[in-house]
Amino acid sequence: MKDGLRFVDSDMHIMEPPDLFERYLDPKFKDRVSVPVGADGRPTRGWAAGLIIVDGVPVSDADLQQYRKRHRSGSTQSSQPLSGSRLFDTGRLDFAIERNYNAEAQVMGMEMEGVDIAVLYPTTGLALLGRNNLDPQLSLALCQAYNNWIHDFCRYSPDRLKFVAMLPVHDVHLACRELVRCVRELGAVGSFIRPNLVNGRYWHSNYWEPLYSLHEELNVTWGFHEGVSAVYSRMIELYGENRFYRHVASHWIEMQQALIAMIIGGVFEFHPKLRVGFLEAQNSWVPGLLSRIEWDYPQYRDSHAPYLSLTPREYFRRNCWAAVEGSEPEIEATAGLIGADRMCVSTDYPHFDSNFPHVAENLLKNIPRQIAAQILMGGAHLYGFTEADFQKADAAAAAGRLA
Questions:
Q1: Which of 88, 223, 292, 385 fits a disulfide with 277 by CB distance 3.0 to 4.6 angstroms?
Q2: What is the CATH number of the domain that holds 263?
Q3: Is the dihedral of CA 344, 324, 261, 265 positive or negative?
Q4: Do the Cβ atoms of 274 and 319 come closer than 8 Å?
């Protein structure tokens, strides 16, 4: 708990181990994936550890940076290429670095932040599948490797550590199979999807119908999570190597485009039980976008979307949650427009722009306690956690403190 309030971290990140694919990838695909190595020839975690190469193509944006960037090395064990990082070189991650970001460190971070239950998202994995025309079977193998690893990671404290499945979006039927496996066999509480256009099929396309239906049937969450380094992102075409441009634009604009597609395309009309989270993009963009769609409703709904039966705000309040990171000045105003019960928290631990371990503290300082309580609890509604889940988490936390 945080200050006596239930707190679900809707988007807490892990740092994948450098040897994940060495240990977990199907052997028949290993010659198609390469990772950075150290002087001992073993996979290593360095500042460019995200530079994984799949079928000869880097999955990160490191190759876009044609000119050397200034590195600021501090007293910690990190070397940070982003000169204004909120988190690195503050010493606040020393405990995690010392433990190589293992599951023990993950739970320690939760304790420091006051998190009861955390839903875990990847780091390098956010961009792993981020390009068009990837071999679907290789896409599936990469997902299976990550999902098997994160399942093992969560076994350290399964009542507190939850995960969402990585899905091979290059074949919707393979994605459905992997979702079923992860939920039924591994305990996943949903999936994560980048909001970008994939292989020319956007989120209003009927192509995705089986996957939407399956999320409803399994009663699990669909989480949109953007990054900056997908090779198929239009932001790269617009802004090239300038990560500042891309980081600002991608997190909001890609989310807005996905929400437009989901609402106007009728996804929420035909899938009324689908729960969708828009994560790590703040959420002050939501009310303005809903107002814009509603502005055009009288002119276009009858002719272009006659299947819609609710207003955009009604769809959002029934199907959607959007995350904040605690210190945004617009939180209280946004809560008044879309409802605090449709908001949740992304701590973004342990990424460079996180305010860990002060995310919840900032939220409580920023807005009235009764509003903060709803937002801290929002992830429970997004992922379908109940009081029974919190009781198990409480028992696990108490046992951990006694150990």
A1: 223
A2: 3.20.20.140
A3: positive
A4: yes
Dihedrals phi, psi of 249, to nearest 5 degrees: -75, -45
Residues with Cβ within 8 Å of 135's Cβ and at least 6 positions away in sequence, in order, are 55, 170
Number of H helices, E strands in the chain: 17, 14
- One-letter amino acid at 84 equals G
Answer whether residue 60 is part of any domain.
Answer: no
**Res. 89: pLDDT tops 80:** no
Report the DSSP beta bridge partners of residue 53. Answer: 34, 58
pLDDT in tens, 7-60: 999 999 999 999 999 999 999 999 999 998 888 989 887 655 457 889 988 887
Confidence of residue 71 (pLDDT cuts 50, 70, 90): very low
Say how many domains are in the chain.
1
The domain of 201 spans 8-16+94-402
Q: How far is CA 120 from CA 64, 92, 123, 133, 163, in A?
A: 28, 20, 10, 27, 5
Q: Tens digits of per-residue pLDDT, 358-390? A: 999 999 999 999 999 999 999 999 999 999 999
* Inside any domain, residue 211: yes
**In a domain? residue 246:** yes
